[in-house]
Amino acid sequence: MKKLKSEFSINKIGKFLFYSGILIGIGFSIILNSLFRLTLRLCNLGMYIDQWNLDYEIPIYYYILIGFASVGFAFCFTTYLWMSKPFATNRRKTLKLRMAQVNPIWIFFGTLIFLLRMFWFLASIELTIEKDFPILGFMIPIFIYLYCWNLISDIYKSKKAFLISSLIFIISGITLSGI
User: What is the pTM of this model?
Assistant: First the structure.
């Protein structure tokens, strides 16, 4: 007989882990948002070095992209904390929890390394995300967010929580973009 997954809830995760995961996620999203904005300004310093001016105006597209990317990356840390139960009711669930705990951090750093490599590749070419890949730029934060929820849904029934957090993901991404 196949066992059903338990419902995703605060009590299943633990109140401390749930709320600390949300607070860590909010903190990381704010830190990553300011870090990505600073990185974008420094990346464009070479174009405006002759003016010795650091007042590069970031377009609205990049503000929105940075807002969603910082929330997506921060959700990796939230997922890491939510799935950090060392032991579960059975061995299979314990293995799934450990995989769901490790994979968001791996995908976070793997994506950052990929983006760093893309930056070095695109640094000498006149390609921009805004003009050449406008919709594909948003695929990375959406992929990361959905990947983390896929890990959670392997362990818990999480349809309602997914819909609520998707709304929060959109609202916080727009809020962090500063629009």
Answer: 0.83
For the beta carbon of residue 51, count every other beta carbon within 10 angstroms.
Answer: 8
Looking at residue 44, the DSSP 8-state letter turns out to be T
| DSSP notation for 47-107 | GGGGGT---PPPPHHHHHHHHHHHHHHHHHHHHHHHT--S--SSHHHHHHHHHHHHHHHHH
Over the stretch 43-63, which tens digit does the pLDDT of each residue have?
A: 766 655 556 666 667 788 889
CA separation for the pair 22, 3 (Å, rounded): 29
Residues contacting 23, CB < 8 A, separation 6+: none
Indicate the helix (H) or strand (E) that contains 10. Answer: helix 10-13
DSSP-assigned letter for residue 156: E
